[in-house]
Amino acid sequence: xxxxxxxxxxxxxxxxxxxxxxxxxxxxxxxxxxxxxxxxxxxxxxxxxxxxxxxxxxxxxxxxxxxxxxxxxxxxxxxxxxxxxxxxxxxxxxxxxxxxxxxxxxxxxxxxxxxxxxxxxxxxxxxxxxxxxxxxxxxxxxxxxxxxxxxxxxxxxxxxxxxxxxxxxxxxxxxxxxxxxxxxxxxxxxxxxxxxxxxxxxxxxxxxxxxxxxxxxxxxxxxxxxxxxxxxxxxxxxxxxxxxxxxxxxxxxxxxxxxxxxxxxxxxxxxxxxxxxxxxxxxxxxxxxxxxx
Length: 293
Ligand SMILES: C[S@@+](CC[C@H](N)C(=O)[O-])C[C@H]1O[C@@H](n2cnc3c(N)ncnc32)[C@H](O)[C@@H]1O
Hints:
By secondary structure, this protein is an alpha/beta fold. The chain has helices at about 20-25, 60-70, 75-90, 95-105, 110-120, 145-160, 170-175, 200-215, 255-260, 275-285, and strands spanning about 35, 55, 160-165, 180-185, 220-225, 230, 245-250, 265-270.
């Protein structure tokens, strides 16, 4: 697999994306049989994984259908966006609301792509009824279809050996075996999901990590973090992992949106294995705290 450039543009825009740090984090991925990503979201790590065979999963059905379309029918995916985008330019912003309403009825993945690319600040937001409710971004035309087509074709290449699932993460982890690697980027500990009503249960999550330890699967977890004065402090029990570092994952999209003082977001990275010295040096040079050796 040819490694992508670190400037690779996202194909699906996702808040909480690991885009800024994916090249750096991927250096910590050890050799393994299968790469698992149970909370794939915008999949920033997928092109940078150095394990060919991948399994990616998310709880949001339309997201997974879109990932499969990008992998299997990239040309069609690009045309589907282009058709909607041209209507938007010609007929005005009511096209956005028409497509958003249709999406809320059908969950069509191409409608999903279009609204995520033309909504306010690209923020994917659902109401309590599970309806996408962000508004149209009046001052932006949405990404040009030719630009998006190139991005889709590039990503399609990186997804060829990835199998997608739409399950709860616990079900996908049942498939893992000795010698596999799992990258975990769950919702912040203890927070209510943006897309699901259920709270993310930390005890079950810790149980899953312990199970991975017991079968000899390696994992890397980005977890608790800090954004400005807000702290999502859910320290992982020290018996579960071997190493920890902090990584700057970008600026809070919410403070950016509110145009208040922009908060830098720092997240913890936990590993259940010993990375080589070379890998540690590469990553810790850019981290805020040395890895515990
Ligand atoms: C922080 S985001 C992942 C971001 C991703 N690493 C990226 O680079 O875009 C967490 C993801 O977990 C998904 N999720 C939340 N609860 C889940 C569950 N119980 N099972 C599977 N996925 C879940 C959310 O839909 C969301 O896409």
